[in-house]
């Protein structure tokens, strides 16, 4: 009997420690491609269930999405019943593309959230900055991880595709806003930045103490085709590099795996961008050991 009890206590201890050790967060940046009627076989109606299933299958905890029109937002809400979202359109309210944050509603509590515009007047709805072709936004939230009892900030954005000055100034603005809003708390920044890793806006973000999750891992922790924008091109021709990123700031939350999901099935793609999925872990304090 004593031997049986000892084995039982050992199993309980192992299971308890396994649960305790699972302090990870699965985070993603996902440009879903707006619902253009000109996308042929890759039109939204052909992709939406595949796209939503990928989020469910990989058990993503938080998704920073881009290019989401309001009808797409409603589709995703329906297809992702275990998630809530926050965010508004770049033209205000339900108008224009959104950069929403979808989060697992059972795991997170939203303590605060808002949207600001990437312009000289970030509080002005639908304001267009510098040489940008379109209004651009940042949606952010302060989350409490109910599982771990810890808080962090998640920012999500989509930089302009044409304005070089706008991208440079947007990097400066978002870095300043992160410092202003989040202070010294952990931060994750996701987005389609429309910039290469050797660009000036990228260097600005790094200089402002944001870290690229891709760079702080070894090759065994990375699974990627080497680029994120596929442009519906089955031959993967032309220049190929990362333009979608997940940055982070602080020591309490750090990346352990990096994955670019190359969702392609013949001529069909999950989106014209491949999603970036990064597994993060909370730093275990000495009190928890």
Overall pLDDT confidence: 93
User: Could you give a short account of the major beta sheet?
Assistant: 7 strands, mixed
Shape: globular
- Give, in spatial order, the strands making up the sheet with the most strands: 3-4-2-1-15-12-10
- Assembly of the depicted chains: single chain
Instruction: Summarize the amount of helix as a percent range.
Output: 10-25%
Radius of gyration: 20 Å
Question: Nutshell version of this structure?
Answer:
The chain is of the alpha+beta class. Helices cover 25% and strands 29% of the residues. It has one domain (26-288): Deoxyribonuclease I, Chain A (4-Layer Sandwich), CATH 3.60.10.
Would you give an account of this structure?
α2 links the parallel β1 and β2. α2 packs across α3 and α4 packs parallel to α5. The protein contains 5 helices and 15 strands. The strands form 3 sheets. Strands 3-4-2-1-15-12-10 form a 7-stranded mixed sheet, with no helix packed on it. It has a 6-stranded mixed sheet with strand order 5-6-7-8-11-9, covered by helices on one side. It has a two-stranded antiparallel ribbon with strand order 13-14. The protein is α+β, with helices and mostly antiparallel strands. About 6% of the residues have low confidence. It has a single domain, classed as Endonuclease/exonuclease/phosphatase (Deoxyribonuclease I, Chain A), CATH 3.60.10.10. The radius of gyration is 20 Å and the shape is globular. One of its GO terms (molecular function) is endonuclease activity.
């Amino acid at each position: 009997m004593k031997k049986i009890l000892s084995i039982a206590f050992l199993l309980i201890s192992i299971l308890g420690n396994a649960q305790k050790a699972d302090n990870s967060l699965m985070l993603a940046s996902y440009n879903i491609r707006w619902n253009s009627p000109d996308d042929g076989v890759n039109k939204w109606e052909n992709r939406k269930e595949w796209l939503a299933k990928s989020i469910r299958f990989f058990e993503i905890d938080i998704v920073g999405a881009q290019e989401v029109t309001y009808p797409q937002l409603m589709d995703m809400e329906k297809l992702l019943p275990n998630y809530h979202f926050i965010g508004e359109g770049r033209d205000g309210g339900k108008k224009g593309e959104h950069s929403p944050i979808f989060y697992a509603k059972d795991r997170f509590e939203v303590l605060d959230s808002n949207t600001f515009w990437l312009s000289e007047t970030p509080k002005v709805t639908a304001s267009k900055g510098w040489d940008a072709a379109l209004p651009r936004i940042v949606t952010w939230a302060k989350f409490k991880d109910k599982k771990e009892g810890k808080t962090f900030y998640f920012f999500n954005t989509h930089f302009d595709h044409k304005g070089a000055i706008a991208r440079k100034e947007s990097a400066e603005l978002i870095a300043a806003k992160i410092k202003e809003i989040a202070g010294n708390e952990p931060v994750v920044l996701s987005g389609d930045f429309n910039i290469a890793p050797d660009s000036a806006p990228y260097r600005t973000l790094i200089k402002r103490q944001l870290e690229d999750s891709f760079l702080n891992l070894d090759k065994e922790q990375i699974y990627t085709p080497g680029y994120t924008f596929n442009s519906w091109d089955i031959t993967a021709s032309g220049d190929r590099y990362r333009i979608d990123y997940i940055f982070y700031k602080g020591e309490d939350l750090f990346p352990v795996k990096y994955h670019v999901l190359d969702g392609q099935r013949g001529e069909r793609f999950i989106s014209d961008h491949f999603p970036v999925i990064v597994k993060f872990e909370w730093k275990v304090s000495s009190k928890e050991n």
